Amino acid sequence: MEDQANTQAQQAEATVTIDDTVYAVKDLSDEAKYTLQLIEDLRQQMGATRARFDQLSMAEQGFTQKLREEVAKADKKTKKSKKD
Questions:
Q1: Could you tell me the CA-to-CA distances from 67 to 43, 59, 63, 70, 81 in Å, in that order?
Q2: Domain extent listing, the chain
Q3: Per-position DSSP letters for 16-35, written without gaps between them
Q4: What is the pLDDT of residues 49-66, one digit of tens each?
């Protein structure tokens, strides 16, 4: 039971690894904690930006395919009109 409590306490203590050294966040200066928060926020923004980029890429692919289809339709009509 005591081991479980120790494990939970260890998991609850936030750490950050910088250059292969582990630091307890609670021991960092306020400026370092603030900088860490900024880094975490930037990582979240980067993830959101990657997701948005993926969405835009898929949309572009869809519109490119739509354009191909429309051009193909126009080509068929043009070829049909020339035969008539």
A1: 36, 12, 6, 5, 21
A2: 2-83
A3: EEETTEEEEGGGS-HHHHHH
A4: 999 999 999 999 999 999
